[in-house]
Structures are given as C-alpha cells and as structure tokens.
C-alpha cells in the first residue's frame, strides 16, 4: 500500500447511485486515503458508507473548479468522475477545464466505472508510488 493518496469523487446526477455503489464496493481501499467530493456526491457517499469525505460545493456551483485548483496545486492524486455522456451539462466548460488540468498535470482520471475499477485496483496494489515523488515538487518547479 502506498502512502495516503488524495482521491476525488464527482458524479453527475444520473450517475450518483453508480458512484455510491462503486465506493461501497471499494470502501476497504478508500478508507486508507483522503477523500474529496463535490457536494451532493460527497454527502451521499458519507450517508451510505463509514467514510469521511471533504465536501466542496456542488459541481455547477464551482465544486469542479475547487477540485481543479487542487490538481493545479499538485495536491490531488486520482479523480473518479462518473460523467453522464447522454445529458448536456450547464457547466460543461468547468468540466472540460478540470479534465484539461488533469491532462496538464498528469492526474489519473476515470470517467466510467470500468476505468475507475482499473485505477482503484492499481491503488490497492500500491502502484501509485510514483505520485509520492511528484508531491515533492511544486508545479512551478516543472517549468523550464
């Protein structure tokens, strides 16, 4: 098992049940890490599990951007963002900005349960040790 990792959960409305079920299935893994989530998603996870989750605002009210700020500050290690690809989201620019930041800073992000399961299995096996090295450096140190 690696050191405590910072894991964020975001789920669109029609994916919240799926997210809660996923977290319940892997509660034994997540209890060893620091957890974050957008408002309602975090509340539902805490109500259905014994996990403590630091909750941000709802996604449309800025929660996605709050998590994005942690990505830009090299704090976040993994994001599970269950998106609803069949429903237009009023805060789509915020979603795209968060995903872009994950790409810029090399943060693994899963947008469906299949990918989330692969990442959580890697987390469980301790394969996120490379993130411990990244935490030693500040984003401004990456610039040449």
UniProtKB/TrEMBL annotation:
One of its GO terms (molecular function) is methylglyoxal synthase activity. Residues 1-144 form the MGS-like domain. It is an enzyme of class 4 (lyase). Keywords: Lyase. InterPro entries: Methylgl_synth, Methylglyoxal_synth_AS, MGS-like_dom, MGS-like_dom_sf. SUPFAM superfamilies: Methylglyoxal synthase-like (SSF52335). Transmembrane segments: none annotated. Its EC number is 4.2.3.3. The active site is at 64 (proton donor/acceptor). It catalyses: dihydroxyacetone phosphate = methylglyoxal + phosphate. CDD domains: MGS. Substrate binds at residues 12, 16, 38-41, 58-59, 91. It comes from the Bacteria. NCBIfam families: MGSA, PRK05234.1. Belongs to the methylglyoxal synthase family. Catalyzes the formation of methylglyoxal from dihydroxyacetone phosphate. This is Methylglyoxal synthase. It comes from Thermobacillus xylanilyticus. The gene is txxe 2536-mgsA.
């Amino acid at each position: 098992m690696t050191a405590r990792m910072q894991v964020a959960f975001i789920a669109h409305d029609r994916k919240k049940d799926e997210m809660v079920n996923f977290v319940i299935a892997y509660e034994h893994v997540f209890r060893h890490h620091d957890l974050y989530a957008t408002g309602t998603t975090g509340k539902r996870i805490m109500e259905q599990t014994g996990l403590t989750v630091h909750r941000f605002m709802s996604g449309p009210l800025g929660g996605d951007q709050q998590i994005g700020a942690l990505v830009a500050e090299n704090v976040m290690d993994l994001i599970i963002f269950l998106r609803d690809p069949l429903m237009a989201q009023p805060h789509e620019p915020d979603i795209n900005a968060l995903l872009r930041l994950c790409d810029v800073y090399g943060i693994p992000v899963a947008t469906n349960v299949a990918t989330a399961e692969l990442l959580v299995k890697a987390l469980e096996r301790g394969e996120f040790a490379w993130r411990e090295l990244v935490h030693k450096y500040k984003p401004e140190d990456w610039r040449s």
